[in-house]
Amino acid sequence: MMEELCAHIMDIAANALTAGARHIIVSIDVDHGANILSVTFRDDGKGMDEEMVRRVTDPFFSTKKGKKVGLGIPLLKGTAETCGGRFSLTSTPGQGVDIRVSFQLDHPDLPPLGNLKDTILVLVVGNPDVDFTFDVRVDDKAFGLYTTEVKEMIGGVPINHPEVMNFLLEFLDEKLFFI
Description:
Layout: H1 5-18, E1 23-31, E2 36-43, H2 50-55, H3 72-82, E3 87-91, E4 97-104, H4 116-126, E5 131-138, E6 141-146, H5 147-154, H6 162-175
Parallel strand pairs: 1-5
Antiparallel strand pairs: 1-2, 2-4, 3-4, 5-6
């Protein structure tokens, strides 16, 4: 089990980037009334065939050369199942991957979310050529960051320019106060 859910977000995003994704969507939904935390990941990377989809949850399987184990997805699946939730992964070659995971909010083994602001910033700034969509909802409060809109707003200035990074930091501080 990873110490924070944001570590899983980073890991799944890294997988998507390795698979050539140009657009990554991360949705986080906290519903205290239903006692559920749901996270959805979607990407437009190279996707997986049926055999790989079956094998990717095996910790002794890895698609990376020189690695005999791949723990990210199996750990995420295990955390979800341990915490009274569910895990699903669907994919079609050439169309990316869709991962849906849920957790029982009050489960004692549920890791904390972690530092979502820094996770978003690292992904966006570290991968300026990739478009990210982050949608976060906690009960009746919602937040969205869409890098296509940010890039349009800043014109030709790179999204990892120091002034844009400062803007993103302030924006995330202001908008993610409810998490």
